[in-house]
Amino acid sequence: MAKMMLFRVLAICVSIIVSGSSSVGSDSESLLTCSKFHFEEKVLEKLVRFEHLMEINEEKMNKWEVKLESLSSKIDEQMKRWEDTFLSKLDNMDEAVNETEAFVKSVRDIQLQEQSRINNSYHESVEHFKDRSKNESEMYGQQINAMLESMSSKIEEVGVAEKKRGSSMELMQYTFQQDQRRFNQSFDLFLENTKLHANKTINELFAKQQRVAVTACVSSGRIFPDNVVRFSTVNFHVGIDNLDTFKSSGKFVCEIPGLYYISAHIYTRTQGQVFYVKKNSVIIASSASDSDSTYSTNPISAVVELQLKDTLYVNAGHSILATYSCLSIMKVI
Predict the structure, then answer these.
(1) Which of 5, 24, 163, 280 is the one with CA 20 to 30 A from 201?
(2) Would residue 134 count as lying in a domain?
(3) Which range among 28-37, 55-64, 150-159 shows the weakest confidence by mean pLDDT?
């Protein structure tokens, strides 16, 4: 391989020299300053350098061949060691298999011997049991006959006692049913009372927790025909279902029993006129307009206990002005 490469390189060099010589000859006429010997000297210098490079490459190739031969020998040695190890392990496995087969054979022989001994012992035990059972059966037969006769007489006695017990059980069952009926009635009555009491307590607690309030004002000034002041402009309300009735009649109807607080401010130009807070037509608070001023704003308030359907309202028999006449009712408890 190296010789072929060297031959190719020499051929290339010769061709370069020939072409260079011809080129030099042709150009010598036009370029008098270029020397033919100078050109050949440069070509030879390049050939020497090229040969030096070829020698370096050939040395590297030789080193690689040495390394490859060394690696190949190491691989052959390792493969041989692995082969020897594998064969040794196979021999050990063969020995283990032979020992296992010998152990299994010995165990099988011992098992057969033990099985034979157990079978012989079993047959002897069965024969002995048969002989003993035959003798004991005759003895037990006599004892059983005596026991049966005794049991027959006792069964007759038990039958008589059972009849007596049956009549007693019927009487006890009747008494028990009567007591159970009375207990059920009492228990049902107790449950009903408990349920009613619990419902009442829950309703009371629920009513106490419910919020009821309203704030309203007079929409237009006038004298109301039945003296019940209508606060028809509702600014705030909560917990009231019959709000339309309150706006049209002027009467607050209690939907949730409890303690209520009522406060009103009556603005009027009538001097020294009395007005009232009434519960179910009964006066619970009263106030009067100022007797000195033409226009006056007059407060009135009260705390009252209301039950379901009770009414609460302001009664005034004189002119009420709309600007500052307002009412507030709130459930306290």
Answers:
(1) 280
(2) yes
(3) 28-37
CA dist list (Å): 230 to 13, 44, 150: 132, 135, 105
- As for how many domains the chain has, the answer is 2
Render pLDDT for 70-115 as a digit per residue (tens, 0 to 9). Answer: 888 888 888 888 878 878 877 778 787 888 888 888 888 887 888 8
Same domain, 9 and 118: yes
DSSP string, 76-98: HHHHHHHHHHHHHHHHHHHHHHH
Residue 186 has a CB neighbour count (10 Å cut-off) of 10
Question: Maximum Cα–Cα distance for the chain, whole Å?
Answer: 166
Comparing CA positions, the residue from 229, 289, 294, 292 lying closest to residue 262 is: 229
CATH number where 318 lies: 2.60.120.40
Query: Phi and psi (nearest 5°) for 216?
Result: -145, 160
| Prediction pTM value | 0.41
For residue 208, give the 3-state DSSP assignment. Answer: helix
**Mean pLDDT for the stretch of residues 290-302:** 83
- What integer best gives the mean pLDDT of the chain? 81
Rounded CA-CA distance 20/36 in Å is 9
Q: Residue 276's closest CA among 291, 264, 287, 266? A: 287
Q: Is 258 left (phi over 0), alpha (psi -120 to 50) or beta?
A: left
pLDDT, residue 256, reads: 93
Q: Is residue 136 part of a domain?
A: yes
Last-in-domain residue among 114, 141, 168:
141
CA–CA gap between residue 260 and residue 321 (Å, rounded)? 26
Same domain for 250 and 327, yes or no, is yes
Where in the sequence is the domain holding 64, given as residue range(s)?
A: 1-26+34-141
17 and 100 housed in the same domain:
yes
pLDDT for 219 equals 93
Q: Do 235 and 122 belong to one domain?
A: no
